Structures are given as structure tokens and as C-alpha cells.
């Protein structure tokens, strides 16, 4: 008996047709099919079936959802808690085309890394509207057990850590070195907030004694050299420990040069910068509300900004992330009068700004204006973070089998950023009035439409914790 050949049934949930599919390394006109939250196929003339939702993306770009590798949601910091909780922050992320966020867990004194992650996840899981993972901000490795607990975090699916060379909860160089040594053994990546704490403290004292209290002096006390020296030292420590290093929120020329040099020598040194350093300079601290721009590291001079853009174009900056850490204007006003009613100064302003909804739109707008390619914007905001943080088995690209985290981008839709048009809980944005060329018009998180034409359509708690793979980088592979 002759067997009838079975027709392959695709059973698609969603078919995005006629778009231009842009990934880090290709640009093609094609259709993209989604089934069960995964990308099922990319090809020409894919046909819908009964029940398939068809979206016409003619004239639009179809991109991987962005991965924001650096957020601080509901974080106790600067005498308060950052304004956006996990729902507000991820809602805002989705509306800016970001489909995964990496939030920071700050380890408590005596707390193991996994306990810190679980403590934070209990707050995040019920709230998140897009997928998420964590980096652990290491604060205490004073016992062998605490240091060894980094390995348990890697097994738990969190293989990335951050050490702070600044702030009172930051670590000293000895602890930093031990964290690097441990990371080399267990397949982890260490990120670093590089600013010279001692010099910063001295400058703060001197400026305050001279009555220099406004936001400009925040910049001066954390100037180019204060950051650059720490970048160089951090790279040296990583070289000595024989491991990789990820410099977060890089904002100065000397640091860019140090990263370039180390990479040219073959070391696995990676750098992240943030849109605020690419768009603003230290001039913002001269504004009437300069305190709204207080973040660490602060925005630097034009020379540094130019060096960062050059580093991006050369390939020496691996990722762009937001460092989203918003505070209300009333909290920023603690720089004038503290919450206890005392005279304030630049050190009493909570450090951080909102940006989670602005990263992908800004970088894509710069691409649309011709400064970088769209492929480069995707690489910086999606593909490289996924590779660096061990997510590339599920996210960061548009390939069959990966999560259907997709952004549809209209290159013709112009957009002026206003706080009213943002979807977080913050009462102001440093990006107010910035004009973007092109804007995301739809975001899908694992195939679910979570944002369309200015409206958030996702659900609180729908985001999933993503387990990341162990990490090992032997050279400047990205
Ligand atoms: O000003 C900032 N960046 N606040 C958040 C904490 C940090 O250092 O990343
Ligand atoms: Zn930092
Ligand atoms: Zn940060």
C-alpha cells in the first residue's frame, strides 16, 4: 500500500510579513513566523494558517528585543528607593523595545550570593512584565564561604557579578582581586563600577569646605581622571588574576583608551556605556536643575563623549545599557535641602537617572540618522549583552528556536521624548525634549504583544527568570 506523504503543518501563532529583518550581522527582507513563544521560521512568502495572526511590517524593521544589561529597580540607594519597581520598570522597558532586563542584587553583609538572589527574586517575580535575570553586586567576601558562594550563584543561573570600587558599600582592591580570581575558576564574568573612592572622598571634602555645593561639583569630584585611574587599575587587576572584566557604564576617554589597549593586547576586556554619556556632556550640571542629572559616573566633557562614540565604531565598546535608577525631583532636591531639613549639597542627591525606555529608541535613532548602522545598534543593545551574560541560547538574535522577543520599528515615525509619554513611575526625565528619528511601534515578549503604538499591553508577573550559562572569555571575542 502506498503511503500518503504527510504535509508539514507549521501551525503558526503569529506571522510578521514583508518586514526588513535586522540582526547584528544581516539585513534581509523576509517573513518571520512564531509558534509557542519561539521563532519558528524566517523565510520568503511564509503562509499563514487558519487562526494565525498576520502583521504587515512593510516599510518597518523587525529587530530582536533589546537586553538591558544594567538596571536598578526598586533599589534601596541614596537614602531612598529608586522610583520604578519591577512592574513600572519592566513596563517602561517593554514600551521602549526592551524585552529582557538584568537587575542588580546588592548582597547584604554576611549574605550568600544565592540568598541575595532569592531575596530579590521574591520581590521581582510577581511584578516583572518582561523576562529578567540578575547580576550580584558583591559587597562581602570576607569569609571563604561567602566567596565560594559565587559558584552556587553560577549554578543557579547567575554567572555575572559587579564590584563597586566606589561608594561606602564597595570593596577594596584585595576583595576585588579575590572575586576576579574566583570568577576565573567558576566561569563567571565580573563587572566593575570604576571610580577612585579615596580621591573622590578627598575632593568632596575639599569642595564642600570651599562652599562648592551644587551639581557641577559632583562632576568635578568624579572627574575624568577619577574614573580613568580606576578603569586602568581594574584592567590591571583582571590581567593579574588572568580573567575577563566587564567595565560597566564607561564614561571617560582614558578608560576607553585603556580598554582599547588591553583588547589590542588580546585581553578579554569588555566595556558597557550608556545613552546618557553618548547624548549629554558635563554641561548639564550647569543647568538650573543640574541635580536631576546627578548619576555615577557623571557625564563627562565632549572629548570623552567623542572617545566613547569612536570606541563604539571601532568595536571596543561591547554593549549599551541604561543604568536605569530613577529618583523623583523631590528626592533630587535633597541637594538643596536634605530630607531632614538640613542644607543639602551634591553628595545628598541620590545618584541615578531614568532611561530604561530610551535606550533602544535612542540608539536606533542614531542609526537612522546614519551615525552607526542598524546592525551595530542591535549588536550593542541585544546580541552582545546576550553573549556576554550567557543568554545567547535563548535571546539576543532572530533565529529559529530562540524566544520570539521582537520589536517592530518604524523608521519614519518621529518622536519627541516627554515624561508624559513614558510608561514608568518617574516624575521627570533627563531626556525631555530629545528628538528621535524613528520609533518602536510594537514589542513582543516570547510572542506576546506587550506594547503597541504608545500603549503597554503586557501583564504584571508575565516575565520569566532566565537562567544564564556559565561564562568563559579567553580573548576580546566581541
Ligand atoms: O548613579 C548611578 N549609576 N546609580 C546607580 C548605582 C550605580 O552605581 O550603578
Ligand atoms: Zn555603578
Ligand atoms: Zn548602575
TrEMBL record:
Residues annotated as domain Urease alpha-subunit N-terminal: 5-54
Top-level taxon of the source organism: Bacteria
CDD domains noted in UniProt: D-HYD
Pfam (any one): Amidohydro_1
Residue ranges occupied by any Amidohydrolase-related domain in the UniProt entry: 61-433
UniProt modified residues of type N6-carboxylysine: 162
Post-translational modification: Carbamylation allows a single lysine to coordinate two divalent metal cations.
Keyword Cytoplasm: no
Gene Ontology molecular function: dihydropyrimidinase activity; metal ion binding
Gene Ontology CC: cytoplasm
Keyword Metal-binding part of the UniProt annotation: yes
Keywords for this protein: Hydrolase, Metal-binding
EC number: 3.5.2.2
Cofactor dependence: Zn(2+)
Family recorded in the similarity comment: Belongs to the metallo-dependent hydrolases superfamily. Hydantoinase/dihydropyrimidinase family.
Name recorded for this polypeptide: Dihydropyrimidinase
Gene that produces this protein: hydA
Amino acid at each position: 500500500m502506498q503511503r500518503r506523504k504527510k504535509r508539514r503543518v507549521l501551525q503558526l501563532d503569529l506571522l510578521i510579513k514583508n518586514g526588513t529583518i535586522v540582526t547584528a550581522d544581516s539585513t534581509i527582507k523576509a517573513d518571520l513566523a512564531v509558534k509557542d513563544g519561539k521563532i519558528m521560521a524566517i523565510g520568503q512568502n511564509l503562509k499563514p494558517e487558519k487562526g494565525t495572526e498576520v502583521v504587515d511590517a512593510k516599510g518597518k524593521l523587525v529587530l530582536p528585543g533589546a537586553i538591558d544589561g544594567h538596571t536598578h529597580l526598586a533599589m534601596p540607594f541614596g537614602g531612598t528607593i529608586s522610583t520604578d519597581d519591577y512592574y513600572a520598570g519592566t513596563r517602561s522597558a517593554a514600551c521602549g523595545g526592551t524585552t529582557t532586563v538584568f537587575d542588580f542584587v546588592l548582597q547584604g553583609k554576611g549574605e550568600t550570593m544565592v540568598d541575595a538572589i532569592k531575596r530579590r527574586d521574591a520581590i521581582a517575580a510577581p511584578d516583572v512584565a518582561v523576562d529578567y535575570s540578575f547580576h550580584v553586586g558583591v559587597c562581602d567576601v570576607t569569609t571563604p564561604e561567602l566567596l565560594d558562594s559565587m559558584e552556587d550563584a553560577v549554578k543557579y543561573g547567575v554567572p555575572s557579578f559587579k564590584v563597586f570600587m566606589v561608594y561606602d558599600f564597595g570593596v577594596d582592591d584585595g576583595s576585588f582581586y579575590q572575586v576576579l580570581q574566583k570568577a576565573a575558576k567558576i566561569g563567571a564574568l565580573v563587572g566593575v563600577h570604576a571610580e577612585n573612592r579615596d580621591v573622590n572622598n578627598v575632593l568632596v571634602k575639599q569642595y564642600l569646605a570651599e562652599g562648592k555645593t551644587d551639581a557641577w561639583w559632583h562632576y568635578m569630584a568624579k572627574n575624568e581622571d577619577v574614573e580613568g585611574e580606576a578603569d586602568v587599575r581594574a584592567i590591571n587587576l583582571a590581567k593579574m588574576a588572568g580573567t575577563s572584566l566587564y567595565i560597566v557604564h564607561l564614561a571617560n576617554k582614558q578608560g576607553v583608551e585603556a580598554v582599547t589597549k588591553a583588547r589590542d593586547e588580546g585581553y578579554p576586556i569588555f566595556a558597557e556605556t550608556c545613552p546618557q554619556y553618548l547624548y549629554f556632556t558635563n554641561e548639564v550640571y550647569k543647568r538650573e536643575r543640574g541635580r536631576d542629572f546627578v548619576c555615577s559616573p557623571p557625564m563627562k566633557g565632549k572629548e570623552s563623549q567623542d572617545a566613547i562614540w569612536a570606541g563604539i565604531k571601532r568595536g571596543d565598546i561591547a554593549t549599551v545599557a541604561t543604568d536605569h535608577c530613577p529618583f523623583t525631583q523631590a528626592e533630587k532636591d535633597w541637594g538643596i535641602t536634605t530630607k531632614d531639613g538640613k542644607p543639602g549639597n551634591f553628595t545628598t542627591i541620590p545618584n541615578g537617572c531614568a532611561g530604561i525606555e530610551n535606550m533602544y529608541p535612542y540608539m536606533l535613532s542614531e542609526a537612522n540618522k546614519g551615525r552607526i548602522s542598524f546592525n551595530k545598534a542591535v549588536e550593542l543593545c541585544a546580541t552582545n549583552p546576550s553573549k556576554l551574560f550567557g543568554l545567547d541560547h535563548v535571546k539576543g538574535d532572530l533565529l529559529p528556536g530562540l524566544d520570539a522577543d521582537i520589536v517592530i520599528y518604524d523608521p519614519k515615525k518621529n518622536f519627541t521624548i516627554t515624561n508624559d509619554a513614558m510608561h514608568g513611575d518617574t516624575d521627570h526625565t533627563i531626556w525631555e525634549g530629545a528628538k528621535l528619528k524613528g520609533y518602536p511601534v510594537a514589542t513582543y515578549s516570547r510572542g506576546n504583544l506587550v506594547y503597541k503604538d504608545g500603549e503597554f499591553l503586557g501583564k504584571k508577573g508575565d516575565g520569566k527568570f532566565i537562567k544564564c550559562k556559565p561564562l568563559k572569555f579567553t580573548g576580546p571575542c566581541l
